Amino acid sequence: MEFFKSILLSALLAGIVAGAALTGLQALKVYPLIFAAEVFEDAGPAQSEQSQSAQAHSAQAHDHGEEAEPWGPADGGERLLFSLLANVLIGVSLGLILAAIFALRHVVDWRQGVLWGLGGFIAVNLAPALGLPPELPGMPAGELLARQTWWMGTALFTACGLAAIFLSRAVPWRIAGVALIVLPHIIGAPHPASMESGVPATLAADFATASLAVNLVFWAILGILTAIAMARLGQNSTPEPA
Amino acid sequence: MAQAKVADNSAVVQVTSTQVMQASFAALLGLALFIGVAFSHPAAIHNAAHDSRHGIAAPCH
Which tens digit of pLDDT belongs to each residue from A93-121? Predict the structure, then answer.
């Protein structure tokens, strides 16, 4: 179990630090844009469109109606605290995947960690953003479950595609890898019927670049720290292979 | 050069099947946790993780 423990501990250490860093960067560059968009969300035309769409869940969460409003953190410190919690959990979850790969491939160099982090950014953030641009509250969007499915599928296909291209020695695998990466974009992301939005385009553009840039830094930190942690913990717990 | 590098890597990589199983379990645990935080539908979880979901450019609403 030492092997598993080193993966778990590395993911915890790297995930907590990277998640906290992500929260700090988002608080500086991303959350102000979300708060600004929420003002338009509450007033703009996108809201009526959203209520009409079959997203009872979205309407519940964002129409501040009288009846049975579901729990949500209060604005300010509490909201930031829950974002921190969510980001740390995301950091640990992605750290578990990275650490599992690092353990099997004996990745212990921080430079390699950066490269794997870059791969993670491309798979999890950049490729899905090509079909579903980072969205602000109040922006028009297609059906939620369809978008989540496409997003997750694109992330997994891109990750497998990158692995096939860079970890394989055989040309057919590399070609298959390119095909895997391209496939979700040929299928196409689910889009809304109308593009009408109360959120200004400049705000949306600011948000798209800021959120992606912040995620790139997050992945770099996560990759570096996971590799360093695996180097320390792995060497202590498992005998080095000859 | 790429060939040499890959050959180098495969020489280093020596893992047992139990290690592969443990790593796979860890990765699946990570995937489940990610889906829970970033995608699960209950309103309370959505509201708690709202800004974080938007921040990682995941579909939210």
Answer: 999 999 999 999 999 999 999 999 999 99
Does residue B61 lie in a domain region?
yes
Q: Is A106 on the interface with B (CB under 8 A)?
A: yes
Give the tokens for residue A33.
């844009």
| Amino acid identity at B34 | F
**Is A88 at the interface with chain B, CB within 8 A?**
no
Q: What is the ipTM of this complex?
A: 0.85
In a domain, B26, yes or no: no
Read off the pLDDT of residues A121-143 as tens digits, 9 standing for 90 and up. Answer: 999 999 999 999 999 998 888 88
Residue B41 to residue A14: CA distance in whole angstroms? 27
**Distance, C-alpha A15 to centroid of its chain:** 13
Please indicate if any CB of chain A lies within 8 Å of the CB of B57. Answer: yes
Nearest to B23 among A93, A104, A151 (CB): A104
Q: How many domains does chain B have?
A: 1
